[in-house]
TrEMBL record:
Residues covered by the Gfo/Idh/MocA-like oxidoreductase N-terminal domain: 3-118
Keywords from the named record: Oxidoreductase
Family, similarity comment: Belongs to the Gfo/Idh/MocA family.
Pfam families: GFO_IDH_MocA (PF01408), GFO_IDH_MocA_C (PF02894)
Keyword Oxidoreductase recorded: yes
Keyword Membrane annotated: no
Molecular function, one GO term: oxidoreductase activity
Domain Gfo/Idh/MocA-like oxidoreductase C-terminal: 130-343
Name recorded for this polypeptide: Oxidoreductase
């Protein structure tokens, strides 16, 4: 029997980043949505929409995906777990690490799968960087810079990410991706130094730019720099990685989001494949060369969740790893406020 799935929310995250993977994976069947208004979800009009959370959670669901604003994640994920359902929570996991830890403990007590949607572990560019790092042919990493930059010198009307709500702002939104990728590669840092700003000075009071330095001393020293801004008309490279014997530079963004926004489904041939013109460049002591980008594979996240629910494997995104992402965000906020480096 397929895993019966309900989705909380009906916006971009639900429509683009979750529903297409559920409906194209035979391990799942998408049953219903929970929304604040009784309107069909675009492109999924045949599926029922509930506005009653209690009735939704009492229905015959195995897995609930929470795609609501971050300020609601904790309460909604807690309700899902208490209803005896498995849960996927959109990033950022929660607003505070205390909330995150409580959810992890509750999931363990209930014996349910709790997965956080750190899908960008399966970006093609990150998979390429990870492969190069783990192969070790260029020696050890000494500096690692990861950017997620865009240009939007206006505030989107009604966008919760730019409203004065807990968990809003670019640090929670895009920072959670960059932090999770870094922790996946290198583990917990020794300390964090951060600068977080509102550079546009528009009507939104939320942060729209940050620079984070994650400091590592063991087993070798390395400096990690994570950057994001809403005012990069010419974005910098997505990744710049300096090794002891070379450098890898990759520009552009993973293609999966653009494909999904165009309604290209994940089961389409060549989904997640990048064109040769976008490949990164490896600058090594024995010469430079282009490096083929690994295929992006958000499908792997959902396949892994299905395996965990069915008792056929362990979660790739362990919930306690997601807790660490929120801890780093909290450390970054403290660092900026106090003007000092914060130890982990």
């Amino acid at each position: 029997m397929p895993i019966r799935v309900g989705i909380v929310g009906g916006g971009l995250s639900a429509q683009v980043f979750h529903a297409p993977f559920i409906t194209t994976n035979p391990a799942f069947t998408l049953v219903s949505f929970l929304r604040t208004r009784a309107e069909p979800v675009p492109h999924y009009e045949s599926l029922p929409v509930s506005t009653d959370e209690a009735a939704f959670l009492a229905s015959d669901l195995d897995l609930v995906i929470v795609t609501s604003p971050p300020s609601l994640h904790y309460a909604q994920a807690k309700a899902v777990l208490n209803a005896g359902k498995h849960v996927i929570v959109e990033k950022p996991f929660t607003v505070t690490s205390k909330e995150a830890e409580e959810l992890v403990k509750l999931a363990e007590e209930k014996g349910k799968v709790l997965a956080v949607y750190h899908n960008r572990r399966w970006d093609g560019d990150f998979l390429t960087v990870r492969k190069i790092v783990e192969e070790g042919k260029l020696g050890r990493v000494v500096e690692f810079e990861s950017r997620f930059e865009r240009y939007r010198n206006e505030v989107r009307e009604g966008a919760w990410k730019e409203q004065d709500l807990p968990g809003s702002g670019i640090l929670y939104d895009l920072g959670s991706h960059l932090i999770d990728q870094t922790l996946t590669l290198f583990g917990r840092p020794d300390s964090v130094t951060a600068h977080i700003h509102n550079l546009r000075q528009l009507s939104a009071v939320t942060d729209d730019a940050f620079t984070l330095h994650l400091h590592y001393t063991h087993p070798h020293p390395k400096l990690i720099t994570l950057k994001s801004t809403m005012l990069a008309k010419l974005p910098g490279p997505r990744f710049t990685v300096h090794f002891t014997h070379g450098t890898f530079v990759k520009s552009g963004l993973d293609v999966q989001e653009e494909q999904l926004r165009k309604r290209i489904t994940p089961d389409t041939k060549d989904f997640g494949m990048e064109s040769e013109s976008a490949y990164g460049t490896l600058y090594a002591v024995d010469g430079d060369r282009k490096v083929k980008t690994e295929a992006g594979e958000y499908r792997a996240f959902f396949a892994n969740v299905a395996a965990a629910i069915l008792g056929q494997g362990q979660l790739e995104v362990q919930p306690r790893q997601a807790v660490d992402v929120i801890k780093v965000i909290e450390m970054a906020k403290q660092s900026h406020k106090e003007g000092r480096t914060i130890p982990f």
